[in-house]
Write a structure and sequence with these properties.
This protein is mostly helical and 206 residues long. The chain has nine helices and three strands. Helices cover 50% and strands 11% of the residues.
């Protein structure tokens, strides 16, 4: 079964003024679509692999044939990463998390301000294209960054939250000011969705 491009859960202009409508249109409608199309192309004739959920496919990346593995990493990762990205943003969002997620962020990173600063640092220092992540690894929250469209799933980690720092995610509005984009991004974080991902990860269902 072919992978499909998920619809945005809001209008392309819904995250204004923090993320502009044109960026959203190009990012989801062209970039994410290309990842899905190229993933399906890479998996032609591989029915068993194509039938797996994207998370499982990436967790089991070592079982993908050598000839298509990098294409699956690039495009499968791009698909999974972006599907998560749209989900964890929302209009009228932002603020701070609550409940178990907030408690565990505080326990792990001292306070929310320190957590935000470390996410920003991971994003700013990622040379070239990539992502800054909050993951659940070995039962603990951890901040890291990854190159290109590499997915935490490939390292046995559960991605709780990630921010895209490819230039296509911000360049039309912020040009080369990646730190400004990362500061603005907190205004659209959907903490309810992030908390749901965290609960699923702790239950081994993400």
């Amino acid at each position: 079964m072919a992978f499909t491009l998920p619809s945005l859960p809001y209008a392309t202009n819904a995250l204004e003024p923090y993320i502009d409508a044109t960026t959203m249109e190009i990012h989801q409608g062209r970039h994410h679509k290309a990842y899905v199309d190229n993933l399906n192309k890479a998996l032609e004739g591989q029915a068993a692999l194509a039938s797996k959920p994207i998370e499982q496919l990436l967790r089991e990346i070592a079982t993908v044939p050598d000839g298509i593995r990098q294409a699956v990493i690039n495009n499968g990762g791009g698909h999974a990463n972006h599907a998560m990205f749209w989900e964890i943003m929302a209009p009228g969002a932002g603020g701070e998390p609550s409940g178990p997620l907030a408690d565990d962020i505080k326990a792990t990173f001292t306070d929310f301000a320190t957590f935000k600063a470390q996410i920003k640092d991971a994003g700013v220092k990622r040379f070239g294209s990539g992502w800054a992540w909050l993951v659940l690894a070995d039962g603990k929250l951890k901040i890291l960054s990854s190159a290109n469209q590499d997915s935490p799933y490939m390292s046995g980690q559960a991605p709780i939250m990630g921010v895209d720092v490819w230039e296509h995610a911000y360049y039309l509005k912020y040009q080369n000011k990646r730190p400004d984009y990362l500061d603005a991004w907190w205004n659209v974080v959907n903490w309810k969705a992030v908390a749901e991902r965290y609960a699923k990860a702790k239950a081994g269902k993400l």
